[in-house]
Amino acid sequence: MASKKTTEYDVRLEINCASAVGYYMLRSGAPPINRLYVKNLGEAAIEDARVEITSSPEFLLPYSAEARLPGKSTLRFEPGNIVSPLFTAAQNERGDGTIAVRVIKDGATIVESVTPVVLTAFNECDFSARPELLAAFVTRSAALKSLGAEIDRRLDEWKRKRVEFYEGSNVNDVRYYFAAAYSVLCEKSFLRAEAPGEDKDDIIISGHEATLRDKTASEPELALLFAAMLENAGIHCVFGRLDGKWYVGAFLTDDCFASAVIDEPSLVANRTGRGVNELSLVGVSGIFGGVSFERNERLSAADAAKAERGFFVDLTYARISGVKPLPERVKRGGGYDLVESDEYDFSVKPRKIREMSGDLGGETVFSREKQWERRLLDLDMRNPLLNFRPSGAVRLLTADLDDLIRAVTARSEFELAPTASGEGALMDLSSPFDGASPLKPVRDLINYEYKAGKLRVPLSGKDFDRALTAVYRKEKSRQEESGAASLFLAAGFLRWKNPEDDDFRYAPVLLYPVTMTKKGASSPSFSVAVQEDDIHVNTTLLEYLYRCFDVDLRALGEFRADSPEDYSAAVARIRSEIAAHAGFTVTSGAYLCSLSFSGYRMWKDVRTEMDGFRSSRLIRALTSGQPEFTAADALGGLRSVDEAIDEDILLPIGADSSQYSAVADSLDKSFVLHGPPGTGKSQTITNIIANNIYRGKRVLFVAEKMAALSVVYNRLRAIGIGDFCLELYSEKTKKSDVIAKLSHTLALEPSVEANGGACEEIAALSDKLGGEMRAMHEKKPIGFSVYEAATGYLQNADAPDCFTLDSLFYEKLTREKFSDYAEMLSELTLCAKECGALDRSPFRYINVIEYTPSWRKRADMMLDVYARELRSLRFYARALVPHFNMRTVAFTREKLQGLSRLAAFLSDSEVIKKLLSSRENAGLLAVADSLIALKDRENRLKTAFAEKFAAFPEAAFSASEVIAAGKKDSAEARLVKRYASSVKYALAKPLRGEYFQGLVAISENRLKIDERLQRLSAAFGGGEEGLAEAATKICEFAAAGKSIYAEFDERVFFESCRIIVGFGEFPLLRYYAGEYERAESARADFERIFEIDGGRECDELNDEIEYVAGIQKNMDKISGWCRYREVAEKCRKKGFEFVLEPLALGDVAPDDVLACFKKRVYAEFVKSEVALDDRLCRFSGLALEEAIERLRAATDEYEEYARKKLYNALVSGLPSPLKDGEHNLERVLLARAEKTGGRGVTLRKLFTEIPTLMKAACPCMLMSPSSVAQFLDSSPDKFDLVVFDEASQVPTAKAVGAIARAERVIVVGDPRQLPPTAFFGSDFRDEEHPELEDLESILDDCLAVGMPERHLLWHYRSHHESLIAFSNAFFYDNRLLTFPSPGEADGRVSMCYVDGVYDRGDTRCNAVEADALIADVIARLKSPVGSARSVGVVTFSSAQQAYIEDKLTAEIARLGLEKVAYECPEPLFVKNLENVQGDERDVILFSVGYGPDRSGKLSLNFGPLNQTGGERRLNVAVTRARTEMRVFSSVRSGMIDLARTSSKGVKCLKYFLEYAERGREMLAIDYTAAGEAPTGIGKLVADALTEKGLKCDCNVGVSDFKIDAAVVDPRDKSRYILAIVCDGENQARIPGVLDRASVQTRILKTLGWNIANLWTLDFFANPKREIARIKALVAALAGTGLTSKKAAKETLNRYKRTYKRLAVRTPSACGAEFVATEDGIKAVKAKAEAIIKAESPVAEDYLTGRLRDIFRVPKTSKKACAAILTAVRGLDGLASPDDDGEYRYASGKTEVFRPLDDKTPRDYADVCPEEIAVAARCALELYGSCSRDALVKNVLALMNAKKTAKTVELTARGIDYAVRSGIVLATVDGNFTS
User: pTM of the predicted model, to two decimals?
Assistant: First the structure.
């Protein structure tokens, strides 16, 4: 449904809803919304979005999900089954509804979609989309019991007893019951109700009681009732519609179809065919017409065979799929009750167990052992070893069985020859089993051809080619899959039958294992080779004869003959023993056929050795179902690969930490190792085997597939220990080869001792690099790491620096405190933001913390009162302004107070009134002021005098006397003496003058006072004290006057006051004074209630009024302010004054508080921690990069060291023939067996006889489960460890024998890949009708019993992330660690739609699609570029596989492309879903094959994909490609309607096709995994680069592995040009230094990435410098060369050297004769060593030429030339890495190149490839990644060589060497990088 966009966000909805919704959906698990994708097409992420689902009417339960929508992403939502049970249960009629889906952001709808649906009634089913939903209407009711009783009575009439069907019953038991049920329904004489038309897919279904009561029913109603009767009896049934008519069928065997819906009528017809006896089918219309059962059966089978359209529902499979029957609906009151059937009601009380005593005999429940036995030995009639069917086999012409036995015993190889149609006598012998005895000439001819090595096949021409090609192909597939001898020459067939059967069956008697060879393509020839040592009698037949006919011939199973007569005698013995059974005989027929024979040996293992097997605790766990594993068996966490050297764990193949953990655990643990596709299972297994046998352990490696076994074996050979590993995959292993290999191994000698220097260097470098990473990411007591602090600082770098942390505060910080403080400051920020600008807040002086409703009420009241008082005060104040002649109306607090004081003076003071009584008194204001000042001075003078001279002589003092005395010296002295005496002060003589001067100053001041008093006395009268008080009041009055004027004018003030007083009573003054007091009282209460602090500066009355009004206006926010004050007080108590003060002053915004705090803390933390840490204080990014380069080089050296050490350890463990011991006797036995070619002894017996040699010479054995049973005895201590590979494909029954032979078990596999299957064990099953269930695997069972688990995490196979992205998303929940590619938009999975036709029912091929694929393969093989990549073809079906393989093989042969296609390390293959697991190729071409038929109809039957576990098959198929996958399909994703199928495999196919069509945009991730917005160093770097104009993304990658930042190529916006790898959290999560420095880097470079390291501390110290460095690097990569000449010079200096030719003189002793002598050879060696050491590396041809010249040896002297060559090749201590000894080295490694120059002539052909490889690396570092042609050009330029065909060829060879040796890397797009 299209989505409707309603906002600026670019979001789309992709929705797929069910067309109809009803209660039955709850019973089937069918969700109303099949698919809900939300796509954010914008660049930016949408945070805090919400997805809502609603319905109208409310038939769905509400659904809502919060999600983050990352930019450029698709999120998947799975609401599940949200159908409302209450609504749908009450629905009585059909209606309409809608489903609405909305995406909401901040309350606004971003996008919405509304889909109309149909609402069905409770008893109505709309099965147009999913017919299996009809199974919900096959209900249980009480009526079925009465119907069952009627059926039982009918069976009694037929003399049949009802039995437990399928277990212990035969096909007739089921058929009779089916017929009886049919008969009972016919007797009801139902009337046909109006049935839905052919095209109508919704029906109303009545209940059973109503149908039986009314005797009226429609065809579908009667079909559902019939099906319910069969299900109630325990019979597997189907029902459906063909061409408008309804049918019901019953399975006669314990079987069902592979899917709930069968939309291909021919599949049902195949089961009903004559002789098949698997399904009985009747038409419902026959019940209405009373047609007999058998007639109806015949007619229905014919209808099914010719039907053109229709479907069937397999009720059993539908129940398995979760479709439950509807409950009965009972109306009660105003609603309905739903009554569940007992079978589906979990609340029903169980019945009491019936107790029985005595030995009942037999087994009603099979134990696990018995189940295994039945799996391994199939004794039903589907086994061709008991019931052979010629289809798929090739008949061989025979005249007499004994003749054939003699022929195949006499010789082993035969050509298969066709028989021309004209050779009638021979064609008479072509009957399947029995033919007329041939005439003697014919018999002689056949025997003659036997001797000539020819076996006749009664086919000719194309029939011959087709039949033998089919057998050859099947043998090849089965050999790869099962490892058992699958192709046999079956000679002699036992004709037999069961007593109750009419038809005879045939079983092969003698089985000759053969190998088949095919030569040619268009006209192939075929031959077979008989393995004469392994001829068997059919042991399965022998066991069956014993069990069913009491004919005991089992001893023949171990029979081994020495002559043809012995085999003839065995056949004669069989004929003799069966003679008593009528019709039994052995015929002389012979067939070339594929048979599964190996199960017998494994069955015998389980059957006879189970008691011993139980010593294995894993087998005990498997048999009991109880866990045997305890806490002691648990595996630890992921271990670092860096530990390997310390733990002496050898890694001859590089490993990541997840692989290393498995290797380390393998030394003493049993566990399951999960190995998803491409995660390095085989490498890990190789390392596991190597380390166990290195420690003297024996390892058994078991794999079901030859491909898996070969991969591990080849890897073991590659690391140098192949000689110690014995591969015994199948029964066709040659004994002579095995014996020869053992002898070869025992004769091995140690190699050159390994140099362990690389180990020490790796350990040191790992410690250095790992130490830096640990130091950066180690959590400190404060709660975060240096890395987190550095990135935290950088994230907050823009915050202002306005906080200052004192050292005490920082030192007390802990993790808990920091967290609390951050939370506290966050809360402070929120509260502050709510309050607005704090420095301008109306509440800024309010300190109330506790807010309560009662306080709010008081506060509101107080504000109202205070505001009113202030307004009144302003009124009266304004009224007084003109009376005082005030020129200003700014009423400050001082003015208001002054007015209040003036009012008091003017109203109450008599002194003021007297003052104002006369205009002349105006001057007294100054007199009073002067008087007060003089009085004050007098007091100060007297105090100072008294302090100095003890006391002032107050009583004796007279001012006038002192003044007078000062005029006479004598008077002065006397006065001083007298005054001092008056206060009894002994005045010293020197102080008399100072004493007197003090008296003078006081006296002069006193005279001035007297003068002022005199003036005041005239106006006021009274004494000095009264006048002083009057003066004080006058001064206060004047001060009050001054306070109310801006510029005080004494005259104006005095006159204004005089006028006011003149009025007498002046009420305005009194009112003002009263109002002022009330206002002040209100102010005090206001400040008390609001807890106003003293900092408030509100001086002017209007400001105060506005302030109060502001508070009143914002009182709704006062609670927030109180909360802020509360938090602020908490912060203050914690010492955050340094935060609160700037915040209150507005120096920092609330939003910046936390950022400022963190910035400061992080800065202090980094500064202190770096200084204290020895590893970080000396940090150098350049030094770390150098260490990384050294580590990579040392890693390569270490692998070579590990291989040599491992090899030498194994060789040293070989027993020496010079030492005594049992091994010497064993050597004799082995030598004897080698001499005789192994005749007379089986490998099993030989291995038992030489245990010591076996343990030393082949500590590792690689086998299939069947070869384990064949070649190894059942000793429980045979091996220390058994390793299963591809364990998901190994049935538990087959694995038991191998488990029992070892102490420990490692089960390697992937539960999401292909399970065990019977696909290759059947010769006649229809591929479109596979077995219902896959077999249980050892992997599944080990997981079920709680075996410890280990997981491989890193995915290596895919060279582009798009190749694994689908599988990772759909099957592994994105848990695989995959690596992104530079061209993420350029996916490597593509779709090629072909308008083809699937030939259903005939060839079962899609020829048009196959031809398109073949054309693509041929084009690739013809192309030089395409042929360089290996190709594999995968098909869905074996028919499509066969068609493609035949035609492609012929086309390749016609065009002469065999060498390109097949003669290469990875030859072209064509395989199908069932046998491709374990294979991989560069390019995988995928042919779906299925598609619309000729009528345009698309069946949703995709063969094995429809099975349970079909999605696992698809997962295998889509994960085989390394570089490209191309899907050829005649089906587009939109053609697959998921509403028509419940198959998970088909669902995944649809999504995979959609992925191939649309790419990664359809890979929706679960919305819960969308995560948070990216953070960390990568985000910071990406943002910084984006600001500088470079498009940059962070956290690039879809898995847990992320590239921190990736820069988009300025030249191509669809690609990245640079990966920036930081030492951040992405890298810290990778446990090992080697993982980070070596493995990861190599993979990224292989994928085509340019890589730059960026270190957090460097970026922290100087972000601008690091960004500039990255920009320069991007500019260099985007340009044509380096941006710096200095950098280019440094690079050349590192790699480039001048070639220096050693000057050598011809010695006196020379010449051809001398060189050939012993002395001559010594002289030649000496000169050769000197030249090599000076000029290394040196070409051998160049060296021998120089030596010939030096010793003057002509080229014609062959003997002397040969002596020189021998001398050169005999040099000791000079390395020669090349196998052919083409170049000689002074050391094992070349790290420089030497260009050609004119001074020292040198031919370019003499330049060592390794030297050219170094030049190639130098060129790549100089000029960046480039193509092969560009690299050749640049290398030639560096080498100063001219471009010719020869130099180009030599340079290309050097580049190839560079790639092989890892000096340069070849990227997946064909370029090269350093």
Answer: 0.75
